[in-house]
Structures are given as C-alpha cells and as structure tokens.
Write a structure and sequence with these properties.
Mean pLDDT: 84
Shape: elongated
Distance between the termini: 74 Å
Order of helices and strands: HEEEHEEHHHEEE
Helix content: 25-40%
Radius of gyration: 26 Å
Strand content: 35-45%
Largest sheet: 5 strands, antiparallel
Length: 174
Amino acid sequence: NSVTDVVIQDNIFFNDFEVTHNFPHIGRRTMMLNARRLELDNGAPPMILLAIEDVTERQLADATIASLAAIVNSSDDAIIGKDLNGVITSWNKGAERLFGYTAQEAIGQSITMLIPPDRQQEEREILARLKRNESVNHFETVRLRKNRSPLEISLTIRSRRRTSWSMTSSSFSR
C-alpha cells in the first residue's frame, strides 16, 4: 500500500517523517512530511492534508554548527562568549581547565569575576574598543583563577555580531 492509502483507509497520521530523495533538477534534498486524513461534513470522500518542508539547508547548518562547537570545545585555549553587558554566555573546556570554573558555574556570571580588582578598568576599555568595532589582539594581562591565583594571559577579542563578543584567552608565562 502507498502512504496515501494507509492515511486514508486506516486514518493514520504521521508527523515529521523524513525522506531524502534525488530530484532530477535540484539534486539530493531532505524533506520533512506531515500528513493526516481530513473528512468534510458534506459527504465528500476523505482527503489528505500533506505538508512538505525542505529541511536540507537547516540540516547542513546544524551539522556545521555541531562541527564548529566540537572544535571550540576541544580547544586548549579558553574560548568565552559574553554579551554587551559583560555577562558570560558560553564557556568551553579550555576555559574550564585554565580558570577552574565549570561552564555551569561561569555562564550567567559577569566576566569581571576573572579580573583582579586593580585591573577592572580594562574591561571598560575593552568594551569601549569593541563598541567602536575594534578588535583586541594579543592583549597581555592578568586574570584570576577560581582559587583566586593570578594567571598571566594573552587576550584576543573579536566582535561576533552587534550583541555579543567572543574572547579567546591563552595562558603564557614570562
């Protein structure tokens, strides 16, 4: 039996049924199908409501995002995302190793938790530069680990978009 026969005869519906097909003019595409039987009150034969969505591009984007996330998470460098208010939005394994905070502990906190009291002005200066659309490259400074011990680092900060920044920290010794 065809899918339409099953939907009509057995009143079966399906949601998010994925089909990949090679189309002659557009190539290989992945489609998401949803179907259900419709019966009208006027005695007309049952019909099928069929919704088809091409999800090929979304699946490719999801795979790319997953791949990039794996690269970021496996980096030895600390890669930290923060918003315009300096609130930490992402925290990779390298940041966990370097600073001693887990992602769960760091995300949602102010980035200033890593900055020694005598260097708090650096964050204001960094934000001012980023608001002027300037990057911060290899800025040598000191930050604090969870145990409050100082850590000499080199910061590189790039604007990701107008609402947030990503920061890469690498430790170094003199």
